[in-house]
Design goal:
globular
Length: 317
């Protein structure tokens, strides 16, 4: 019995923290999972409020096709025209959609990652390179299906609606009601294939880079703590890697979820038409604003999440 107890591995430990850090919550595995959901939701809400304007600009530029309907010459022109026409808070149109979706997205992402880790973890409590990629991929695919696709579809439609002279949506629930009434429940699942590809690759890349950097920093010493600023730095690097790895997928996803998605027969048709009419550089539209958002996003997500879990472990027994 003593041998088994000594070899016990906590399957719910966070991959970027030591087992004695923020992940090692009191109260058992179930408590850790619940704390992860709540902490992830709080972290997501803070992150979204800080970084949403860059997400808004990125989406506007990706929806801005070449030709007579092109509205913006670049990032600053988009910000200037948005603020002039709709005020500063025009940069926050669609924010409520992401706020409503942050808690279930975090719950699915972390829950699936930790469950997948149960099957992939090695005898010494670590993940192989294949395991890191597989667990991240599973988390990304799950969050794409259960949270991100409907949330992102509604967000893109809200932002696209604002581009019209007379916007139709009066608020979150009114907009969702109109979308479902006109397009059915499938109206909030436009671009699900592209979203699965995007989120799957996102999380596979981020968890792989984050886990690898953490292992490198620890140098084989699993008890070595990782300072918060190092966690943030590693998170930013992981975020940047994911941007360069899947921005083309993000562009296709955005167009498949826009108000003009009907002109594309499928995700592949969107890819072909974009390449044919606008060239390969079109797949990297919005890279700069997306890069600035994602690097900051992932950095603060890991850092704030770690800090919140520290507090929870102290006050939530």
């Amino acid at each position: 019995m003593s041998t088994k107890a000594g070899n016990f591995k906590n399957p719910f430990s966070r991959p970027w923290m030591t087992e004695t850090g923020a992940a090692a919550a009191a109260g058992g595995a179930g408590s850790v999972g619940l704390k992860g959901v709540v902490a992830g939701g709080i972290t997501g809400g803070i992150e979204i409020c800080i970084t949403f304007p860059t997400e808004y600009v990125k989406t506007q530029l990706q929806l801005d096709e070449k030709g007579g309907t092109k509205k913006y010459t670049g990032i600053f022109d988009c910000v200037k025209k948005t603020v002039k026409g709709h005020g500063f808070f025009g940069l926050y149109r669609g924010l409520s959609v992401l706020l409503y979706g942050s808690i279930p997205k975090s719950a699915v992402r972390f829950g699936v990652f930790e469950q997948a880790k149960l099957y992939m973890v090695t005898d010494n409590g670590t993940l192989t390179n294949t395991g890191k990629l597989a667990c991240g991929l599973a988390a990304g695919v799950a969050e794409a299906v259960f949270a991100v696709t409907p949330m992102e579809t509604v967000k893109v439609k809200f932002i696209n609606d604002m581009r019209m002279e007379k916007p139709r949506y009066k608020g979150f629930f009114h907009g969702v009601k109109m979308i479902v009434r006109e397009e059915g429940i499938g109206g909030v699942y436009k671009g699900v294939t592209a979203t699965i590809m995007k989120q799957g690759s996102n999380q596979a890349i981020r968890f792989f880079v984050m886990e690898s950097l953490r292992d490198w920093y620890k140098g084989g010493d699993r008890d070595k703590p990782v300072p918060k600023y190092i966690v943030g730095l590693f998170g930013g690097i992981a975020g940047a890697a994911s941007v360069f790895g899947n921005t083309p997928i993000d562009v296709v996803k955005t167009r498949m979820q826009g108000l003009e998605a009907a002109k594309y027969r499928s995700t592949w048709d969107c890819f072909i038409k974009t390449w044919k009419h606008e060239g390969p550089l079109a797949f990297y539209k919005g890279t700069v604003p997306r890069l600035s958002r994602v690097v900051f996003d992932v950095a603060i997500t890991f850092t704030i999440y770690d800090s919140i879990m520290d507090v929870f472990n102290y006050v939530w027994k």
